[in-house]
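Standup notes
- DV: blocked on the single-chain target, sequence here:
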Amino acid sequence: MADYVNIHTHRPTGRCTELRTAGIHPWEAARELAAVRSEGLAGRLGEALAGAQALGETGLDFACSTDREAQTELLRAHLRLARERGLAVVLHCVRAFEPLMNELKACPPPAAIFHGFIGSPEQARQALAKGYCLSFGERTFASPKTLAALRETPLSQLFLETDDSPVPIAEIYARAAEAKGVPEEELQRAILDNYKRIFTGGEYEGPGRTKGDK
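- DV (later): unblocked, structure below
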């Protein structure tokens, strides 16, 4: 069986492929922005940036009390750095889909993953049409509209995650495979392919092997 990829987790286990990220959450924008202006985002992230495969989570959350202008300025700093370093971004988006899509259009990162996607099928189509990836987690299965978005998301642009949930990633895979009507092993292989394509430059060729592997 292929390895599980958990593209976004606050509870790393070390028992599967877990993305290494560095970034400042939009909730922290007001508190961190002065330091980012002074030190630059790369300076503020420090050593964490050296081992990061992606920047994030970054994005916009218009449901929280954090100043929206501060969030936007911080997001723009992440997108500029992503372009400079050739890094993907992991996106947090709550009630701010159109503004976030506009920021991505103005400064497109090498790759973008909407983590914990809970939007509508129409929003999913818009993001997918731009080449972005969507990641789904436990909350997906409580929302009919998000389940519909999951079903429409091509395997080539799909990731799964646990985020802050204690639910094992294997359970998320099993439920997603059932929802999409595909064998779980096929889902695992497709997501591993996506991970290696974006983060290692490889292409999946079968269990344990990708193009470019040595």
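- Follow-up: The CA atoms of residues 26 and 94 lie 10 Å apart.
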